[in-house]
Amino acid sequence: MELRDLQIFKSVANNGSISHAAKELNYVQSNVTARIKLLEKELNTPLFYRHKKGMTLNPEGRKMLAYVHKILQDVEEMKQVFLDSDAPTGTLKIGTVETVSILPTILASYYKGYPNVDLTLQAGLTEELIKEVADHQLDGAFITGPIKHPALEQYDVFTENLVLISQNKAFRIEEFMSTPILVSNQGCGYRTKLELWLKDEGLLPKRIMEFNILETILNSVAIGLGVTLVPQSAAEHLSTTGKVYCHPIPEKYGTISTVFIRRKDAYMTNSMECFLKTIAEHQHI
Hints:
Shape: globular
Number of domains: 3
CATH topology of the largest domain: D-Maltodextrin-Binding Protein, domain 2
Distance between the termini: 49 Å
CATH architecture of the largest domain: 3-Layer(aba) Sandwich
Radius of gyration: 23 Å
Strand content: 15-25%
Oligomer: single chain
Number of strands: 11
Low-confidence stretches: none
Mean pLDDT: 89
């Protein structure tokens, strides 16, 4: 079994097809197919369900993928240990939720101080990002916190107020029963806060509308489609022009914290250490 086989297996698993994996790895399809078959023969078990639309991991394949993630991560960390220099270089794969208002400031400061680091960003929801950091797919992520996870450590970034926003200047809690509530998909931190508030009030809204993009939610509120709960900074550009109105909510649900997470057992590269220092310099709690 070669390291290349594990990389091919991971690519096929992530892409769900031989052709997409071959394109990603710049291999011919026949080579990818042959290496997967050889790996299955060596392990004496099929790793995929084959179907018309591609390939999907079977239970043995999912088990294998967990080992592959760990092996490839260990190899990458081994390289970093020996190649790491005093001047931060290499890559950092960072995830983030949409509402980290201080993120541009952090990134600008980091790029200015450490221009040789190739930093990439991936947007997502808190639950997705936690999983991807835990599975070694991301080096770290800005998420809604705090969290409790045995494999992860967290660093405070900032705390801000949540507000209910609507098109109308006045809003009463009873209106939740007749007004559509606009939210992000499951896994969003401020959606969780809103659901907890409504549950504690004994309210079961009749209509909840899910959106993938925060900006779409905000613009939908501005045209009167419904109401939503977001960090105050996210609605500031609309509230200052009078397109939406911000309403305070009970203190118990009124704040949200952003934290940065990384795996506890991940090797601390110079690039990551400097990134954490940059976060600390701009910390606002």
